[in-house]
Amino acid sequence: MLTLVERQPRTSPVSWNKVMRLCRRARALVATWRSRARQRQALARLDDHLLADIGLTQEAQMVECSKLFWRCP
């Protein structure tokens, strides 16, 4: 008995360079997010005197600290 099988369309293989480039970009993005989270945690610990030194109000501090880590400043 003969069965016909449809040929699957050819897909181009992903090059190793593309995979490595994607990994580097993902790593850089995660590093940026971690840095942003640490900076916002440090900002949350500042008292009124230090906030005044850098020219921020408590309201501005709360707004910035309430942002999620992936949100840009």
What would you say about this model in short?
The protein has 73 residues and is mainly α. 60% of the residues lie in helices and 0% in strands.
Secondary-structure element string: HHH
Whole-Å distance between the termini?
67 Å
Structural class: mainly alpha
Share in β-strands: under 5%
Helix proportion? 55-70%
Low-confidence stretches: none
Oligomer: single chain
The global form is rod-shaped
Q: What is the number of beta strands?
A: 0
Compute the CA-based radius of gyration.
24 Å
Number of helices: 3
- The chain-level mean pLDDT equals 89
Biggest beta sheet attributes? none
3D architecture notes:
- It is a single chain.
- The chain is mainly alpha-helical.
- About 60% of the residues lie in helices and about 0% in strands.
- The protein is rod-shaped.
- The model has no long low-confidence stretch (mean pLDDT about 90).
List keywords for this structure.
single chain; 73 residues; mainly alpha; rod-shaped
Secondary structure elements and their pairing?
Layout: H1 16-44, H2 48-54, H3 58-65
Helix pairs in contact: 1-3
